Amino acid sequence: RREKEAYIAERLGIGFEDVVIYCPSLSLMKEAGVRVRLPGKVVPLNDPGHSPPLELTVLEEQYEALWRFYIFVPEGLEGHCAKEAAALFGRPSEHTGDQ
Fold it and tell me: How far from chain centre, in Å, is Cα 4?
């Protein structure tokens, strides 16, 4: 993350401290990883090898669909940052501001 922040800062001509990448864990549902006892073993509740509850699987899939990756930069640089980030990460920006 720090390497990418430094790269973007350099490309935008700003200080490293002015770029923050926020990249949350794909699964923040810690409860889904709680260990449960099954006959003969203890496994995480969301372990795909033992058919986790359908409700849990659906919730995890919904959460993953909501996942976002953010880059924060000083006001006025959003459009330039969006272009640099798209080139760096190979995905277009979903930023809706002026680009």
Answer: 14
Amino acid identity for residue 4 in this structure? K
Please state, in angstroms and rounded to a whole number, the distance separating the CA atoms of residues 36 and 52: 11
Measure the CA dihedral 23/73/19/61, to 10°. 0
C-beta separation of 89 from 59 below 8 A: no
In tens, the pLDDT along 2-31 reads 999 999 999 999 999 999 999 877 655 555
H helices of 1-99, in order, are 2-12, 54-66, 78-89
Amino acid at position 26, single letter: L
List phi, psi (to 5°) of 50: -125, 25
Question: Measured between alpha carbons, how far is 7 from 13 in angstroms, rounded to an integer?
Answer: 10
Q: pTM of the full predicted structure?
A: 0.60
Whole-Å CA distances, 85 to 1, 6, 66, 74:
12, 12, 20, 15
